Amino acid sequence: MPKIRKVLVANRGEIAIRVMRTCHELGIGTVAVYSEADRDALHVRQADQAFCVGPAPSRESYLVQDNIIAAAKKAGADAIHPGYGFLSENPNFVRACEKAGLIFIGPPASSMESMGEKTRARAHMVKAGVPVVPGATEPFPTAEAAKAFAASVGYPVMLKASGGGGGKGMRKVESAADFDSAWRAAKSEAMNSFGNDAVYLEKYLDKPHHVEVQVFADTHGHCIHLNERECSAQRRHQKVVEETPSPILTPQLRAQMGEVAVKAAQSVGYVGAGTIEFLVDASRKFYFLEMNTRLQVEHPVTEWVTGIDLVAWQIHVANGGVLPFLEPISPRGHAIEVRIYAEDPRTNFMPSPGKIQYLRVPGGPNVRDDSGVYAGYTVPNFYDPLISKLSVWAPTRPEAIARMRRALDEYVVKGITTNIRYLRAIMENEEFLGGDYDTAFLPRQHPKLLGEDDPALTEVSLLAAAVYTHQRAQKQARSLVSTTSSGKSGPSAWRSGGRFHRLGGRS
Ligand code: ADP
Predict the structure, then answer these.
(1) Which residues contact 198 (CB under 8 A, 6 or more apart)?
(2) Cβ–Cβ contacts within 10 Å for residue 9, how many?
(3) How many C-beta atoms lie closer than 10 Å to residue 250's C-beta?
(4) 213 and 199 in one domain?
(5) CB of 212 closer than 6 A to ligand 1?
(6) Is the peptide bond before 245 cis (omega within 30 degrees of 0)?
């Protein structure tokens, strides 16, 4: 008899919806949590029940463990799925769930602790015989000690926050002359972002590929890998496009990396879905970068080529089930995912929250849109501006690229600015089409992707932008007049449907 009958999803946006979809298919009840800024969010509408857990800032809502656990208890949930981000990699939260008698759908706290801090994870991996990016396995007590180490490793080096993530607290240092200022900057960014200013350093690998391996383990001692994802299309060390199989991997390299990834996961007693990230250099040597102890944003591409529902497997394993397959499986066909953001590539990717006036989502064969928004929804400015992940499958890479172009052409979002055209340009870019693109690909091709490499076009686009801005201002002024004269907004059907509950008396 399965233990899990109702799941609280401690997250928001597309990932909360993704998890709930599988729960509903499995006949499992769903509970959403939301902040005051997210009352009208799609994940709240998708759930069977919803609880407000605090004000807009995530520190006061999505990160408040007590409120989330109280909501789960009140709803009668027996498990919590953390999604990614927020509390998903917090071992204290895992323990708090266990203490409250709730199943945490994820790895044990001890595995998270081993892999949580970058330096601790590196030390573990060295012990387990997993190759790591050359560098330190402990933070440096002083700038002098770090500088001496940098000289021994050889410049350039990468300073990194031990407690880092999300591409923050990372600084490339070209030479000893730049070291001190980079050290201070990395330390202060680490403190501001993670409340921990411990910094260590790695050798800076020149134009590596980011290739990661999906692993899965159960509580019966089985652990397998589900192939790789190529995630080298990055901006500020954050992934923008992901695909599988990686165009640069041979079957031998895939098998080797898979084997090492499984060894890495097993060495920390891993359970559930996890990702071992590697950097692969020009000679195709690979090095452990870090482990993400949760479901990854880009998991849909793995689902496309394996036919597996990774969330269903997570629930199955959390229920004490044995992994459905115990052998690695060959990927079938090719899948690509792009991250659609409410941001403006032309203004240095400034977030562009606001109301979505019109939305047309692509469909057709082998197209999947994991979205967190709807027409009429206002994208709040408190959270990550990811509005959707569009993914496609086709038998071959060129066909998958053609399908992605077609899907992006169909995608229409009006009212806010998105990066859809930028993503479309990536799908036309020669370097991307060639398949051997490294982590410096997007910065290198940036002007071309914006169409700014052609001065004539730039002039035309500047003129077009000026006309557009003027027209938009006029339209907004007109619509303001019309809403103030006739605007009336009643409570939504969802809110009046009685599915909303409150916690802690906030309104
Ligand atoms: P975070 O945890 O902040 O996401 P990661 O350690 O996973 O940081 O690295 C994110 C990205 O930064 C990598 O995919 C790669 O592009 C770049 N990077 C990280 N370490 C190095 C390194 N030693 N050399 C070159 N690039 C690196």
Answers:
(1) 117, 119, 139, 161, 162, 163, 190
(2) 27
(3) 10
(4) no
(5) no
(6) yes
Cα of 288 from ligand 1 centre, angstroms:
10
478 assigned to active site: no
**Residue-by-residue DSSP string for 65-88:** HHHHHHHHHHHT-SEEE--SSTTT
Query: Do 420 and 345 contact (CB within 8 A), yes or no?
Result: no
Q: How many domains does the chain have?
A: 3
Q: How far is CA 366 from CA 18, 72, 305, 372, 423, in A?
A: 17, 35, 11, 20, 18
Give CA–CA dist 326/110, Å, rounded. Answer: 24
Distances (CA, A) of 449 to 210, 420, 445, 454: 21, 11, 6, 11
Report the CATH number at residue 237. Answer: 3.30.470.20
Instruction: Give the pLDDT confidence of 445-464 residue by residue, as tens digits.
Output: 999 999 987 655 555 555 65
* Phi, psi at 487, each rounded to 5°: -65, 130
CATH number of the domain to which 90 belongs: 3.40.50.20
- When pLDDT is averaged across residues 70-75 and rounded to a whole number, the result is 98
Q: How far from the centroid of its chain's Cα atoms is residue 70's Cα?
A: 27
d(CA 40, CA 253): 46
Among candidates 123, 194, 135, which has minimal Cα distance to 159?
135
Residues 233 and 342 in one domain: yes
Nearest to 41 by CA among 75, 68, 15: 15
Residue 467 has pLDDT above 90, yes or no: no
- State the catalytic residue, choosing from 294, 339, 368, 403: 294
CA of 235 to the centre of ligand 1 (A): 11
User: Is the sign of the CA dihedral 269, 272, 277, 283 positive or negative?
Assistant: positive
Task: Please state the pTM of the whole predicted model.
Answer: 0.90
